[in-house]
Every structure is written in C-alpha cells, then in structure tokens.
Design goal:
It is a multi-pass membrane protein. The protein has 692 residues and is an all-alpha fold. Helices cover 75% and strands 0% of the residues. Helix 11 runs antiparallel to helix 12.
C-alpha cells in the first residue's frame, strides 16, 4: 500500500481494541505479575507440547485430548472474566493474584475433571455402560465447567443450545409427536458424553487438538514474519491501478491473507486498517468500503489451504484425504471472490472512480524481492500436504520454517547476540498468542461434543430429517401443481423437494451462525442437517460444504454481522448499512452452494464428476453472479433501466441452475439488456471519438 495508506492505517493497539470489541473470543482480561507470567508460561508450554507432538508423534487419543482440554479449561478462567469489564488485577484475600476464588476453583475443577478420563483409561472399558458414582460426579463437573468456560469465551448462544439438547435427552418421554423417545437417566447421559468417544472426547475435540491448534499457531507465526504484509503489498502492485483499485486490492489481499489466518474478524481488522481508508479516499462511500472488506475477509474461511478449522474436521468426519477437501474448495472459493470483484468493479465504473497512480503503487518485483523469504513456510506447508503426509506433520514443518525465517530475518537486522534475543522473544510471543487464540475454539468443540452425543444417544437427527423432508415434499407438490400450467417442466418434484430442503437448511445455518462461531455451527449442522440432505441423495461431501458455506455467511448477515461491524468501526460507517451491503457483496457465497448441491461436479472430486457438467455449472454460475451483480449495482456498461435490472435478476436465477434449458432461458432474458447496453456504449464511444 502507499505511504498515505500506512499513515491513515490503525495502530496495532487500535486494531487490537477493535478486534476485541467485535470478537468475544479475543477479549482477554489483563493480569498482574506474577499471574500474567504464569499464564503466559502455561500457554507457551501448550504450544511447545503441540509443536513437539506434531513432529514426533501424537499420544494415545484420550490422553492427548484430555491434556489439551485440561490446559484449555484451566487457562480460560484466568483469561476471560465472568461478567462485564475486567476489574483491576489487584490481589486480595478474596482475589488471590487478582483473580476471584471462584475462578481458581473452576479452573482447578476443569483440569481435574478433564484429566480424570485419561487417568482411568486402563479401566475405561469396564466402566462404559456401568459408571461408578465418582465417574458420574466427575462427568457432571466437567459438563458444568465446560458450559461456563464456553459462555465466557463465546457468549450465551452455544451453551443454551447445549442445555436444550441435554434437556431433550433427559425429558425424552415428555417430548411431542415424533420427537418423543424413552429418555435417559443422568447417569446414562454422563456415561455417554463423558466416558465414550461419542461426546466431549469425540472427533470434534480430537480434530482441534490434533490439527487445528497447529494451523492456528502457523497462521500467527506466518503473519508475524511478514507474510500477511507481503500479500497486501503484492495485491496493491497487481490490482491497484485498475478502476476502484483499493477495493480490488482489498478483495485479493483478503483472499491471500485469509488462506493462512482463517478468521473473518482478524482478517477484516488486519487488511481493513490499510484498505478501507484507501477505498474511502478514492471515492467509495464509507459503508461500501467497510462492506467490501468484510465480504472479502469472510472468504478466508473457505480459501485453501487452511480454511479455518473446518477442512480438518471434514477429513475426520468424511474419511477423505485433506487434498480432496482442498481441491473441492477451489472453485466455490473462486466464485465468492469473483462475485465481490464484479460488484466492486461495476460500482467503480458507475461512480467513475480512479485507480491508484503509478507513483502510489509499489512495484511487484521490488515487493517480492524484499519479502520472498516469508513465502517459504507457506510453500513448505503446501508441499508437505500435497505429498500425502499428515496435516499435523505439514504444520510442524510449516511452523519450523517460520522459526527458521525468523532467525534469518533477525540475523540480517541485528548482530548475533541481539538476533538471538529477538528470536527468543518473538518465538515466545508467537507461541503464547497462538495458544491464546485456540482457547475459545477448543471449548466450543468440546461443548459441541455434548450436542453430537445427544444426537447419537437419542437419534434426534433422523427424526428432524424426516420432519424437514416431509414438509419440503408437501411444498414441492403444491408448487409443482402451480407450475404445471407451463408448456415445459421447470423442475421435477424431486428437485423441488431438494430445493426447499436446502433453503430451510440454509436459513437455520445462518440463524445459528448469528451467535455461534463457524466451527461450532458446522459441527452442529452436520449432526442435524447432514442426515436431512442424505435422505435426499446428496453426497456427504456436498452436504458438508453446503452447511459450512452458510455457516460462514453469518459473519456478514445482519443483525449480527460481526465482520461487517468491525469493518464499519474502521470506516466510521453505519454498521447495519455496512452489514446489508456486505451480504449483497457476498451473494456469490450464497448462490454457489445451491449450484454444487444440484451439480456436484463443481466440487471437482465428487462421485459422477464430468467436465460437461462442471463447465455448464461453472459457466452458468459465473454468468448468474455477473447478472445479479449488475442488477444490484444498477450498472452494466451504462446505467440500467428498471426493467433491465428485473430481467437480469430473473436471468441470474435461471443461469445458476445447472441445467441446459435453464441456462438458455437465462441467456434469453439477458439478451435485451445486454444489446441495449452494448449499443449505448458504442454510441458513447463514437461520440467521444468525434469530439476528439
């Protein structure tokens, strides 16, 4: 970015304050010495433990998961306050080392209850199904502590959902209609959730402790060595000169940075502190600048190779290699950023906005020559992943490469003694911050284990699936009768049933995502919604991607569009207006899941893949996104008339349907607007040439 952009950018303290304001997962309370040092040491040890085990072997599953959970629960009660703003960290009899006695008790209880299952592991097989009273007591303690830890780190929504599922398991006999079940005693519930691998110590916690932690740490270290800044500068050099250049820089840099960070709000604050002031300076409205950054940043969670935590959850739940997940994510991720870019470009043309001048732009070769070393860890990470090694081994070598680059950078900048001290300090800081950022997602994954455990205990997932598909089938029959007056069939009853099921699933994903982080949302939805889509013949990979995409969409969907609100804070814009605009800019992410649900070939690696189906689906989706973008922007090559916007909007619906007849209908609808716009542009070009 230009020097002017850097001067207008937020300071590190301002960015931290803004991120804490909109992201409850990073609202860490201040601690006084010596507790701050003790907590930092525990966080550093946790990172060292995971770094070592990633390279030299993961311990037995229950031991590994229990160790990680024990560290997390102990640290959460020192890192997050129970209510409101953190008090001054002063030590008293009731607040030893500045932390209340209740927090000390909860931390200790969480550590003991989490380590109890690994401790009794040798006898576990004899206790499952017939728990001892001490087992029930310890399980109850862990459930209570986990509910409180997650509430502190993430707020009320997820604990409330977990409590509702627990109530459903216990009061099954009192449930209405199809939802009724024999019910379970508290002892049986605790047995299932605490002593088996179907609950708290299940796959979700396993993935967080085995894969996700390592990639969070990698993202923190990669950003600290300058890889994120390199992405921003390269995007400026490549895209800044085009119309509305800073907005295009925002889209491209957010895609690149998001590929290693996987956090919508962190990505928004990091890149937005530079790109949002630049967008405003060239003429974009404040709310639009905020929306561009928010919509772009939410794409980070769907962009390979990291994709937040969900890619690693998918490999466990689907039983496929990580390369399959990353390949499937390529085209849908491209469609999202394509949709944002098209709208940014049309808005720039409509407003007559300029790009950045040559003097304002960095030179791509100069930027890369100065920062090429920071790309080494990313290349190492991807190379090891593609070689077929385990993801945690890839993360080990990626983290090791980050540390190597850090040593080289410090040796270049300082003498040997100072370089060693700086390397130690920065490694300590990176390991501490990386572990800190993992606390909330670990608590969420463990608590979601309760939800998943209740689903497997009661079979409620299939009951909900039956209810939803029955309603969708009834709606499909009604709509099919209404459409029967047409001389051709628009959609079969089966496809209409699938469409209505997808719509209901999407709405639930977005609503849940308003208060629940993407990872937790995904885990709950695959337990509840995936069986629904499975009943209709949707492939598991497609079903998982569908609920994942709509879970991510919640970050830019009002009324709780946290990424958009964070961007609005940087832009000093109306937050709700920024959220509405961000949702409109991210409509590619909303349309594409329906495309690959009906045409799985868009994901490249699904059963029955054909290039014909792929190109029809991809081409139709791109045309549909372009048409809908023009309708929203009221601009194609010139201002659009009302009827042209309506035609383009209708055409978009037909174009994204992966069907040849629907595509032809869409092209026919586009034709009048396209022809008039082309003639209008030709006449204007002729007038300009005559004037010259």
């Amino acid at each position: 970015m230009t020097e002017a952009d850097r001067q207008e950018a937020l300071t590190e303290a301002e960015m931290k304050a803004l991120e804490e304001r909109y992201d409850p997962e990073v609202r860490f309370r201040p601690l006084a010495f010596p507790l701050d040092w003790l907590v930092a040491t525990a966080l550093f040890v946790l990172s060292c433990y995971h770094f070592y085990t990633a390279g030299y072997g993961i311990p037995q599953a229950v031991t590994h998961r229990g160790t990680h959970l024990a560290f997390t629960l102990g640290l959460i009660f020192f890192s997050f306050v129970a209510w409101g703003k953190a008090p001054e960290p002063r030590s008293t009899w009731l607040r030893p080392l500045g932390v209340s006695l209740s927090d000390w008790v909860l931390a200790a209880a969480g550590v003991v209850a989490a380590l109890y299952v690994p401790w009794i592991f040798d006898d576990l097989a004899f206790r499952v199904g017939d728990p001892l009273p001490i087992d029930v007591v310890m399980g109850t303690i862990l459930i209570v502590v986990l509910l409180e830890a997650t509430r502190r780190a993430m707020g009320w929504p997820l604990p409330v959902i977990a409590l509702l599922f627990l109530a459903y398991a216990y009061f099954g006999r009192s449930m209405p209609g199809i939802l009724t079940h024999p019910g379970a005693s508290w002892s049986n519930i605790v047995n299932h959730l605490y002593l088996t691998s179907q609950g708290i110590y299940g796959t979700a916690l396993g993935v967080i402790s085995t894969y996700v932690f390592h990639f969070v740490l990698f993202g923190v270290l990669a950003t600290r060595i300058g890889l994120g800044q390199l992405f921003i500068d390269l995007a400026s050099a490549l895209a800044g000169r085009f119309a509305g250049g800073p907005a295009k820089v925002s889209v491209i840099s957010s895609a690149m940075l998001g590929s290693i960070s996987g956090s919508s709000i962190a990505n928004t604050v990091t890149t937005g502190s530079l790109t949002i002031p630049a967008m405003i300076r060239v003429g974009y409205p404040r709310h639009f600048a905020a929306a561009v950054e928010a919509a772009s940043s939410t794409g980070g969670q769907i962009t390979p190779p990291v994709m937040g935590a969900v890619a690693f959850l998918m490999i466990e739940y689907l039983g496929v290699p990580l390369t399959t997940i990353l390949t499937a994510a390529l085209v849908p991720a491209f469609m999202h950023f394509f949709g944002v870019l098209v709208q940014v470009h049309l808005e720039a043309r409509r407003r007559g906005l300029r790009g950045l001048t040559k003097e304002e732009l960095p030179v791509a070769w100069t930027v890369f020559k100065a920062g090429w070393l920071t790309t080494l860890p990313l290349f190492v990470l991807v190379a090891v992943l593609l070689s077929g090694k385990t993801p945690y081994l890839a993360a080990f070598w990626g983290i090791s490469s980050c540390l190597l680059v850090l040593v080289i950078q410090n040796l270049i900048r300082h003498d040997v003694g100072t370089a060693i001290r700086e390397t130690v300090r920065e490694t300590w800081d990176g390991f501490v911050v990386g572990a800190k950022y993992s606390l909330s997602v670990t608590a969420a994954a463990a608590l979601v284990g309760i939800v998943i455990g209740v689903v497997t205990l009661t079979g409620v997932g299939f009951k909900i699936a039956y209810m939803v598909t029955s309603v969708a089938a009834e709606w499909a029959q009604n709509v099919s009768g209404f459409l029967s007056v047409l001389p051709f069939e628009v959609m079969s009853v089966a496809n209409l049933t699938l469409l209505f099921t997808l719509i209901m699933t999407a709405v639930v994903c977005v609503l849940m995502g308003c208060g629940i982080p993407t990872t937790a949302n995904y885990l709950i939805m695959i337990a509840v919604a995936a069986p629904i889509l499975g009943l209709l013949g949707v492939q598991p990979l497609v079903a998982h991607f569908f609920v994942f995409y709509y879970g991510v969409l919640a970050d830019i969907t009002p009324p709780v569009a946290l990424a958009a609100y964070a961007a609005a804070g940087i832009a000093d814009a109306n937050a709700f207006k920024a959220g509405n605009t961000a949702f409109r800019l991210g409509m590619g992410k909303a349309l594409v899941p329906f495309v690959f649900a009906f045409s799985p070939s868009l994901l490249l690696v699904t059963d029955g893949f054909t290039w014909t189906e792929f190109f029809l689906a991809a081409g139709g989706a791109m045309l549909g996104i372009w048409a809908l973008s023009a309708a929203f922007s009221s601009w194609l090559f010139a201002p659009l008339r009302v009827y042209e916007r309506i035609l383009l909007g209708l055409a978009a619906i037909f174009l994204v349907a992966p069907d040849l007849v629907a595509t032809i209908i869409g092209l026919v609808l586009i034709a009048p607007a396209f022809l008039r716009q082309t003639i209008f542009r030709s006449d204007n070009d002729a007038l300009r040439q005559g004037a010259d």
